[in-house]
Amino acid sequence: MYQPHIDVIGRPLWKSLRALAPPRLRPARSVLLRQGDPATHVILLESGSVLVTLTGPEGESALLAIRGAGELLGELAVLDDKPRSATVVAAEECRVHIVPAPEFLAFVERHGLLTPMLRHAITRVRESETVRFELATASVSVRLASALTRLVEAASAPAVERVVRLTQAELSQMIGASRNAVGMALKPWREQGWVRTTPSGGLLVRNIRAIQSHARAQT
Fold it and tell me: Which one, of 139, 143, 158, 135, lies nearest residue 205 by Cα?
């Protein structure tokens, strides 16, 4: 089962790693890491949630994963000294610590973390493959319900109602569907009061379990 980095390396070491860089705030929709950029640092996600996306040769974007607090971002590119393989965008306001690559590598070496880090990276790859298979085979309703579920679960604080700060157009790009198809999938959920549009253009998710059940029933 997937674990966040904070559980993989343990909370005492996580606290020590976090202390290597001061906290910074990044607003929703800001790009934290960009695909193709050099791996100059890693990011510790202290609070908030992010989208991990892959951009294809024609500019198309696909969702790989959604991450929440307690995660390291961009560590694999630093470990193998290769350009960023994906883009990471803040799904909400995030509190982060930006650790330079040399300091991160020294920390990994000092505490013998290379093997657990690589094992964790393999688990991430498998999870991304599951998401991509879902995007290729599931209905729009199932894909949208799954994406909303991940966003709600990764959010910085638990709540009965959760605001997803992504527009309908951004959600459609994220799950590889047309905006009209996403609108059609949202329509019955809006009618039931399970979700509604916020003044900023995002979505207020009021009953994610009902959304999940309805999506599965349509398949």
Answer: 158
